[in-house]
Amino acid sequence: MQAVEVYTARDLRNRSGELLQHAHDGNISIITKHGKPSILAIPFDANLLQHGIHRVIALHMVQSHQLTLAQAAKLADMDLSSFIELLGASGIDAVDYPPEELERELEDALAACDHC
Fold first, then answer.
1. What per-residue confidence (pLDDT) applies to 23?
2. Record's superkingdom (predicted)?
3. For residues 49 and 45, what is the distance between their CA atoms, to the nearest angstrom?
């Protein structure tokens, strides 16, 4: 899974096939107009129907290494352990970070638990 791809409104006209293929491949895209985000394109798939938009975005952002587990759990409006279970049910590894990032992730998780 790739990071969020950004397309312009002109790209939407000229490269719509590429945008559709990007979504078909399971990727999220942002379409901008005059440099500002205008449309969020999310693949319409079983995950979206089953889990809803917040959770699908959170899953995508963890898998593409754009959010930590704690941040994604917050976005998904779930506690950390439930979100980790959702990752497992979705076939996404909860931990696939290099060792230095894992330490930061554990610190974030512990801080999130302090607020529970």
1. 85
2. Bacteria
3. 7
* Angle, alpha carbons 23-26-31 (nearest 5°): 40
pLDDT (tens digit per residue) in 18-53 = 888 888 888 888 899 998 888 888 888 877 888 888
Q: For the structural domain made of 5-41, what CATH number should be given?
A: 3.40.1620.10
DSSP 66: S
DSSP E strand boundaries for the chain? 5-8, 29-33, 36-41
DSSP state of 50: H
Stretch(es) of the chain classified as CATH 3.40.1620.10: 5-41
- Here the tokens at position 4 are 């969020």
What's the pLDDT score for residue 97? Answer: 65
